From TrEMBL:
InterPro entries: PDDEXK-like_dom_sf, PDDEXK_AddAB-type. This is PD-(D/E)XK endonuclease-like domain-containing protein. Residues 8-112 form the PD-(D/E)XK endonuclease-like domain. The lineage of its organism: Archaea, Thermoproteota, Thermoprotei, Desulfurococcales, Desulfurococcaceae. Coiled coil: none annotated. Its cofactor is Mn(2+). It holds the Pfam family PDDEXK_1.
Length: 121
């Protein structure tokens, strides 16, 4: 699934009339499900953008059972806040000039920031 917010793969999208529900299946339960909840909410927003239907519920399914949550305003705001923070972080990387320590990084050959190539991207 691709949208202007990013990309990812939802395990299932349930279309129920004018509404969507997104399902994410996990092989094991995390101690803290909040990162999984944000992930499935992100997929929900992508599905809304692509399918032009409102997403009203998200489901996280673990081997022990499923956890369902409404796609609330606070959950939407959490996702958009994280996206905004990521965009700001990427922008800061684009402004950064390569440092001396870049010469020791094993990813230097692959990193566009180490060569200053991403300043205009």
């Amino acid at each position: 699934m691709r949208g202007s917010l990013g990309s990812g793969v939802a395990d299932a999208i349930i279309i129920n009339g004018d509404y969507l529900e997104v399902v994410e299946v996990k092989l094991r339960r995390a101690y803290d499900i909040r990162p999984h909840l944000v992930q499935v909410a992100f997929y929900c927003l992508l599905a809304e953008e692509i399918l032009r239907k409102r997403c009203r519920k998200v489901h996280l399914c673990y081997p022990e059972g499923c956890v369902s949550r409404p796609m609330s305003l606070s959950l939407r705001e959490s996702v958009f806040g994280l996206v905004e923070a990521a965009e700001k972080g990427i922008e800061e990387l684009r402004k950064a000039k390569p440092k001396k320590y870049c010469q020791y990084c094993k990813y230097k050959r692959l990193c566009p920031f180490a060569h200053g190539e991403s300043k205009n991207n």
